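Support reply, case 0932

Customer input (verbatim):
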Amino acid sequence: MIFDKREVVLSDIKQILKDHNFRFNKQFGQNFITDTNLLQAMVKDSGATGDDVVVEIGAGAGTLTRELAKVAGNVYAFEIDRNLVPILGQTLKGLEDKVEVIFRDVQKVTDKELDEILGGKPYKVVANLPYYITTPIIMRFLERERRPQSITVMIQKEVGERLTSTADSGDYGVITLAIALEGKAKVMRDVPRYMFTPQPNVDSCIVRIDLDDTYSHVDKAKVKKVIRAAFAMRRKTLVNNLMSGLGVSRENACKALNDMGLDERIRGEVLDIEQFIKLSEIL
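Our regenerated output:
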């Protein structure tokens, strides 16, 4: 779904920001959502409901936080910019029993601290992520011991296409396969740049990753090692990348591909996650 420009209905958040003399900080990649329809759509896309515990990364002006609190049980919102303290105090007023804003960089919060905050409860991650921390944040939650049930993120459209691409496509790569090893990713909707304040230079999309245990029996560390080697130099064949990245002999690399019924001249980007798992087991 693509939002039509005529549907944009701005809340009074812009006036609130103005009243507090708030200045957007490029260092934090701040682009706030001000359209109620889009906020509600993102909450719907996340699947948050009932007694769900939600971890929001980047509370911003609290617009998404407020919409999440309407449908979820509890929202723990992390925010790095303390200049937003008075603004969030106003936009989240009356929600103190459901929302806790934590003014810390979530990347510096340890897994133990995060688990203590959540009380060991199952949770979902929802975030309008600054583009520069998209991959580190997603991978942090994919790879931690207490993984979320799902991750729903507003991210740069180009990155969204990379996360959800298929084998043998230009966007396919290490991050695509890392996600496929943990769950399934889907682009929920496209979001044009004019839906943000201030307006960024790129369009965005909402991606939802539903985590599962399909490959819980797999040695994921070994699979990821093979994947990283396979994509180290995209122009090289898979055999050559396995030789240079893993120290595998040409004979063994070729034999592994032959055992899988694959051409020795193929490149890594044509293999799907199942094939990479099998390849790692053979090697």
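We compared this against your earlier run and they match. Two observations from our side: Residues 39 and 51 are 19 Å apart (CA to CA). Strands lie at 32-33, 53-57, 74-78, 99-102, 124-128, 150-156, 183-191, 196-197, 204-211. Please reopen the case if you see a mismatch on your end.
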